[in-house]
Amino acid sequence: MKDNYRKLCDNAVHGLTLYTQEHITLIINARDVQTFAHTMKGACCLDECNPIFELTHPYRLNIVKFLREGGKRLTEISRHIGAPTPEISRHINRLLMAKIIYREKHGMYRLTPLGKIVEVATSHIEFMINKSPYLSSHDVSVIPSDYLVILPWNTLTTLSGTMEVGSLIEKASEEAEKFIYVMSEELMRSVVDIEVERARAGVCVRKIYLKGEKMPQEYLKTRNLEVRVLREIPLGLKVTDKIAGIALPNISTGKIDYSMALISTSADFIHWCISLFNNYWGIASPIGEAGAGKR
Known about the structure:
Layout: H1 2-12, H2 21-29, H3 33-44, H4 51-54, H5 58-67, H6 74-81, H7 85-97, E1 101-103, E2 109-111, H8 113-130, H9 132-135, H10 145-148, E3 157-160, H11 162-175, E4 179-184, H12 192-200, E5 204-210, H13 217-221, E6 225-230, E7 236-240, E8 244-247, E9 260-264, H14 267-283, E10 285-286
Helix pairs in contact: 6-7
């Protein structure tokens, strides 16, 4: 059991590796970080001296969040939390014992390397809990595990509505200055002219579609615009130099749900989407190639 916990902590170094169905279920069923920590305590037989358990108290959780900004003195922490100094001192001692924080000679408290990992982990957990309706109804397992473990969850927001998602897709193409990468089961006709124009303006446009999808002639003869195909499209993806988003299959239908998307303008998520797209681009086949779409 302790080995299970050790593996969980090791995985957290990579940005909270909770990619198994068991761990995801624990997260989406928890009401908050404290509930999650207690659930993990029961699942992994953790004692009360582990980092996750120490954050089951809201004061200690908020202290760790506050120290993300940098070193703070006891009086600053007490004032920020809104609790008496003796009470905060007691909680700080718990965090010191758990090696989540350390005290400098001049009385400043800072996060330890372990504390930084724990802080990142809690931010991911909180995002997953806040987005549990989406995550519990959409299949995250279609994301390759190597990418799922480094997905910057805490940078994402959800966008709902078919029209809203469609409008954002069009706007992303219009505003792209360097590149437009797309992977989708279906061709979105409203962006054809936009992306052809952007390609002619020097923007690199690369698109992956389902084998058999009929492509516009403009796509096949426009410079800077390349199209490849796959036999299966596991998820929807669009990334430009300014914004990125993914659409996952709905668990009930098994089909990619383009009425909801996870989006972000953060550099971390944009780079993540570029890497994921390039992974599929490398195994996709150019249109017209013998056996195009074979994986």
